[in-house]
Amino acid sequence: MELTASVLDLEWSEIKDKVTRFIRDYVEKSGVEGAVVALSGGVDSCTVAALSALALDGKKVYGLMLPEKETLNHRDIEHARLVAKKFKIKTQLCDITPALEALYKSIPIFDHSEKVCKGNIKARTRMIYVYYYANNLNLIVCGSSDKSETMMGYFTKWGDIAADISPIMDLYKTQVRGLAQHLGIPREIVTKPSSPALWRDQTAENELGVKYELLDLILYGLEHFVNSKEIANQLNVNPELVEKIRSRWLFMEHKRRPLLTSKLQYRTIGWDFRLPRSSY
Amino acid sequence: MKEKFKIALAQMSSERENKKENIRKMEKIVAKAKKQGADLAVFPELALTGYVIRDQIYDLAETIPGPSTKTIEGIARKNNMHIVFGMPELSEKAEATVYDTAVLVSPEGVVGKYRKLHLPTHSVFEEKRYFRPGYEAVALDTELGKIGLIICYDIFFPEISRLTRLEGAKLIVCISASPSVRRGFFEVLTVARAMENTVFLAYVNLVGVEDGLQFWGGSRLVGPQGKVLAQAKYDKEDIVICEVNYSDMRSVEPFVPTLKDLRPELFDELKKYARDF
After folding, report:
1. For testing the chain A interface, which of B55, B128, B213, B234 should be mutated: the one with the most A CBs within 10 Å?
2. How is domain A5-205 classified at the architecture level of CATH?
3. What is the per-residue pLDDT across B239-250, written as a single tens digit (0 to 9) for each?
4. In sequence order, what are the residues at sequence separation of 6 or more whose Cβ sits closer than 8 angstroms to the Cβ of residue B60?
5. ipTM score of complex
6. What is the tens place of the pLDDT at every residue in B192-247?
């Protein structure tokens, strides 16, 4: 296998059809009114919002913008609105700052300097809002996690990853960008640096320590059982970088498969209790 | 025996775990196909129950004969039709031993059945977890000629199609539940199996979304020269009525004489190396 950028190229119109069919099928079988998407203004959530609108009709899609004062970025809100307008999606903006401040205050051991712990509260608070809308308006939560972030464990457990369906979770970030472009998402959204907005000036590539163009090829190689040495060789990068990514890729399975218990009885959740998903 | 007849490629989506609804749907399709002159209706693999049924298989599997085959026999009789469909078959001799089975029913009743030989247990497939494999290829005598039955992943193994052909099958029916990422394989293999055996091959695939897994449809009839004679839609339910004319086989065999040129001595070698592989 040759690891060049072209391996990540997909037939975007076919991908669009498959994903929209997937969303439509799930919503129809669930018997709900539509979908709610946490619309941050980033490429992932804008793409999922657009796909949901194409699958269901924009009138049935809620784009929820959930800013808070520390990471407030007016450009992101503008981008979210731009996509909502283009795909005729309903939007609502909820400032989550008061909820966050109440939470910080009510946790006796809360420490402002622990930015990851604090950031995770933000992601989980956003989840609470999204699920409130879903429950109250009879919608499903359409998640925006992509394959690069999910494989690297770059998400908050029970936070931004929480969703009823995750339509783009089998697409690496650079592939999401390709699909976004195909859908007509404005270029400035497609190319801007991704951020989970947990603290100011946070960017995904800085934290992951590698550009998505390279990361995705390494992850693609790992997915296809290419060994680390061969990946490093082909991509002409330091083998230590590939090994570091591989270790994280393996280690993060605990975040991807969170229901774990000890086997004590006949059929056990997460192991051999294997039921079809027949009610949604 | 009829030299010429019509087949309905009944590319349906199944409602999972709802045998009653699926039989009702099959009955409607059979009646419609009959009106259009079909003598044989072919439904996908596990059309009776849906494909992604996991542990529920033990509740859904039935013996053959059993209540579902009895109902399908009634439909075949009423419509004077042959029907091939897929179902999880419960062994008569055990409580929870299940086969992935294709059943051929004529207006006179069940003609025979084929238990899937090759059970994929890789990628998204977990068939060996639930099914016991069959142990023989099957070609069944009908008034529509001898019909060979294979199921989905079997098509990757040329031996089984060849076996049914050598047993005298003039039509190979392959019922399938193939997810969309596998389309490329099946579009090539359906043509290859028909061509190398100079035989008609009817491929009928499931369609719809089950547990997020999308089945691509694309059912087709391939002629003995490898030509796609009829093709159903991708990703949508569809019924395609198409014609099998066995007289077409006569001119193909002298032109592509694969059966005449078979070298049985190679089969011993194949057996030897396959075991040591």
Report:
1. B55
2. 3-Layer(aba) Sandwich (3.40)
3. 999 999 999 999
4. B17, B19, B48, B49, B53, B88
5. 0.88
6. 999 999 999 999 999 999 999 999 999 999 999 999 999 999 999 999 999 999 99
Spell out the domains of chain B, with CATH numbers in brackets: 4-276 (3.60.110.10)
pTM over 0.90: yes
- The mean pLDDT value of chain A amounts to 96
Bridge partners, B203 (sequence order): B174, B220
pLDDT at A278 over 80: no
Q: Amino acid letter at B125? A: F
- DSSP classification of residue B155: G
**Residues of B with Cβ-Cβ distance to A18 under 8 angstroms:** 180, 214
Upstream peptide bond of A186 is cis (omega within 30 degrees of 0)? no
* B173: Cα separation from own chain's centroid: 4
Take residue A83 and report the two structure tokens written for it.
């996509």
Domain ranges of chain A: 5-205
pLDDT value at A279 more than 70: no
Chain A residues whose CB is inside 8 A of the B17 CB are 276, 278
Looking at residue B37, its pLDDT comes to 98
* Inter-CA distances, A59 with A27, A54, B53, B143, Å: 14, 10, 34, 55
